[in-house]
Specification:
The structure holds two protein chains of two kinds.
Chain A lengths: L1 H22 L5 H23 L6 H10 L15 H10 L14 H11 L5
Chain B lengths: L8 H15 L4 E2 L2 H4 L20 E3 L4 H14 L3 E4 L18 E4 L6 E5 L4 E4 L5 H10 L4 E2 L10 H6 L8 H4 L5 E7 L5 E3 L33 E8 L1 E2 L3 E9 L5 H13 L8 E3 L11 H7 L5 H7 L8 H10 L4 E9 L1 H15 L6 E9 L38 E5 L1 E4 L2 H18 L17 E3 L2 E5 L3 H20 L3 E2 L4 H10 L2 H17 L23
Helix pairs in contact in B: 1-3, 12-13, 13-14
Classes of the chains: A mainly alpha, B alpha+beta.
């Protein structure tokens, strides 16, 4: 069920990008795509083991418990996640999540990650 | 900018400039914002003056750069503190033991130099995590397993150097014991290889551990005598099948016989997988099941939970009667087996036969599967027992319906106790009494030890780190008292965070601390300037000795 939801969200995002490309030819689709490829790779390596869908991921379980159904515990699904908040969390940590050093996630990787995680946030 | 104690600002500036020439400006961190990233995220001193913090950090990417940094550190007497991936959470994280040290961050040294399938070994640099090594092996479809701790995002080298443990077969679970050969940058910047690696063009560096002459690899673990830049490890050939089952004993008084039988089976290698002890009746989850509790809660009835309150030192006649009435065993040992199906089925049957001498014992197969498993099914298991790294262990401490007040981390109190049922009972009596007196939330009813190592138990108690300095102070002081109490009974910690290393080492005091004095003698001979990781495991260079509180 979770996987289906994730794929559905992913297809909306992909569709959204295509629409943007059609409507706004000045925006480089290639650049946008590259950024999310890197951001997604950083997410997969550093965030997913705790934040992927499902309560077997402690970050997701913690957020589900915190938000009590008001919003999803899956950060990939959030639509109110500013890039600046992602950057703050990665460098400061929360509860048992430690902060991450620049030898783990560089500033440019963090920017890409933040852009990816905030892609659905207006 | 912070400056290491005893170092002039101008010398520090010169050293930092030299570090920048060696690794590039981007990889020398001096701003408070960047250096704060090296704070121990689980520090019980968080935000207090005693918190151990770095002055700067430098991150080399090659062994030659490490050597150059060490030479510069000698020139300007800069204290360095080495970390591999900095994920030793609960044991100090990425922060130095000596405040003001420059953290030598080896995370960028992340090359997997070799994974040899035919001889089942690997050679890795310190920045390689268990996830990195696992993914590399999967991508290349190599038929070898790693043995990883839980959580599995730490350094393969670093975990072994701090003598961590894992969850597969006995001869791989002790991560330092399963290493074979290391390359070390000595405190004078010289490069050394141990074991067969001391032969130029060595042909068997990862196949024979000790070479010839004194075998010195051990002195580089939990110490500050060198910087390991490469390390070999023996890997387990991918087994054909996996079987895991439970042996349940009904009575409290069965504990000693159960442990004796387990010891015989393990020491005879009839069972070699991670043995895991639990108590369904006392509500104690075995190590591999703890995450399930925080994910899904308990299946205990209200009546059962109510009776747990009547338990004293593990015993309660009412609870035991309830257990017999509802067929809830007092003890359960989880046994796991890896190998050809016909072999592990026979090992399981032999194990059942040996446990059957304890009256009323019940045996049950929990998992029986051919390997490799479908990766999508991994979460049905405690992943590390199948050599798969995961972060599910962070459910300990993280918010969940079963842990509504998340912690800020934890300190592991983990003395080694004898492999006997009586020692389990004694440790519970001694430490639960102490915890009550010290007002520390360490026990619910009864604690069972972990079986990472053969031959001994580790009695692990998680001490929470909170956001309240007064509570942290109480727990820190209590932690030190527990260490001393353990020492009075002949029990000592196997590993601890820098803030407790002095107290732990103090317990190992035979003949007026002969062992510690020998460690200091070595330090003075090997590292006369006291450059490397001052204070690690309470080994201080001469000029700082006795000056630490």
């Amino acid at each position: 069920m979770r996987n289906r939801t994730t794929r559905h969200v992913a297809s909306i995002v992909m569709g959204g990008l295509a629409a943007v490309a059609v409507m706004a030819p000045s925006l480089s689709l290639a650049d946008t795509g590259v950024e999310h490829v890197q951001g997604k790779a950083v997410y997969t390596k550093w965030c997913a083991p705790c934040h992927a869908p499902g309560i077997i991921h402690p970050g997701t379980h913690a957020l589900e418990t915190k938000y009590q159904g008001v919003k999803s515990g899956v950060i990939l699904e959030w639509k109110d996640l500013p890039a600046s908040y992602v950057e703050y969390m990665v460098r400061h940590g929360m509860s048992v999540m430690p902060q991450f050093r620049k030898t783990e996630i560089t500033d440019s990787e963090l920017k890409a990650l933040a852009a990816y995680l905030s892609r659905n946030t207006p | 900018m912070r400056v290491p104690p005893g170092v002039s600002s101008s010398d520090f500036a010169k050293a930092l400039a030299a570090f920048e020439r060696i690794v590039g400006k981007e990889w020398v961190f001096t701003s408070e914002e960047d250096v704060d990233l090296y704070r121990d995220a689980f520090s019980p001193f968080m935000g207090e003056p005693e918190e151990r913090i770095a002055s700067a950090a430098v991150a080399p990417v090659t062994t030659e750069q490490v050597q150059d940094i060490v030479r510069i550190a000698n020139q300007y007497k800069i204290p360095l503190y080495t970390i591999s991936t900095g994920k030793n959470l609960g044991y100090g994280g990425s922060a130095p033991a000596y405040s003001g040290s420059v953290v030598l961050d080896l995370k960028r040294m992340n090359k997997i130099i070799e994974v040899n399938e035919a001889n089942a070994y690997c050679i890795v640099e310190p920045g390689v995590s268990y996830f990195d090594l696992y993914n590399y092996i999967q991508e290349k479809k190599l038929k070898v397993w790693i043995d990883c701790p839980d959580p599995g995002w730490g350094s393969v080298v670093g975990n072994a150097m701090d003598r961590g443990g894992g969850y597969t077969q006995a001869n791989y679970r002790n991560h330092f014991d399963s290493h074979c050969g290391m390359e070390v940058v000595l405190p004078n910047g010289e490069l050394m290889r141990t074991g067969m690696g001391a032969i130029p063009n060595a042909a068997t560096w990862q196949q024979y551990k000790s070479g010839v002459g004194p075998w010195i690899d051990g002195i580089f673990s939990q110490s500050n005598y060198g910087i390991v830049t490469k390390m070999g490890f023996w890997l387990m050939p991918e087994p054909e099948a996996y079987l895991r089952g439970t042996i349940s004993c009904m009575n409290f008084d069965d504990l000693s016989a159960m442990v004796e039988t387990l010891n015989f089976l393990e020491n005879s290698r009839i069972t070699a997988g991670f043995p895991d002890l639990g108590s369904p009746l006392l509500g104690y989850s075995p190590v591999g099941q703890v995450q399930l509790f925080f994910e899904s809660g308990t299946s205990m009835s209200e009546e059962h939970m109510k009776l747990l309150a009547t338990v004293k030192d593990g015993r309660s006649p009412e609870l035991e009667a309830f257990g017999r009435q509802h067929n809830i065993p007092c003890w359960q040992v989880w046994l796991s087996f890896h190998g050809p199906m016909e072999v592990i089925e026979a090992q399981w049957q032999a194990s059942i036969r040996h446990f059957a001498k304890i009256k009323g014992t019940q045996a049950k197969v929990v998992d029986k599967t051919h390997l490799p498993i479908n990766p999508a099914d991994a979460s049905k298991f405690h992943e590390p027992e199948l050599g798969i790294p995961a972060l599910r262990a962070f459910s300990i401490g993280a918010r969940s319906p079963y842990n509504p007040t998340p912690s800020k981390g934890h300190m592991w109190f983990s003395p080694i106790i004898p492999r006997t049922g009586q020692a389990i009972i004694d440790a519970n009596r001694v430490f639960s009494k102490a915890a009550r007196e010290l007002d520390m939330p360490l026990f619910r009813t009864f604690t069972l030890p972990a079986c990472f190592w053969e031959r001994s138990f580790i009695f692990i108690l998680a001490t929470p780190v909170t956001t309240d300095p007064a509570t942290n102070k109480k727990y820190r002081e209590g932690f030190k008292k527990l260490i001393a109490i353990g020492g009075e009974h002949g029990w000592g910690e196997y590993r601890t965070a820098p803030v407790f290393q002095e107290a732990v080492v103090d317990v190992y005091s035979f003949n007026n601390h002969a062992l510690h004095r020998f460690h200091e003698t070595l330090k003075d001979a090997i590292d006369p300037n006291g450059i490397l990781s001052a204070g690690r495991y309470n080994i201080w260079p001469k000029h700082l000795r006795g000056k630490q509180s």
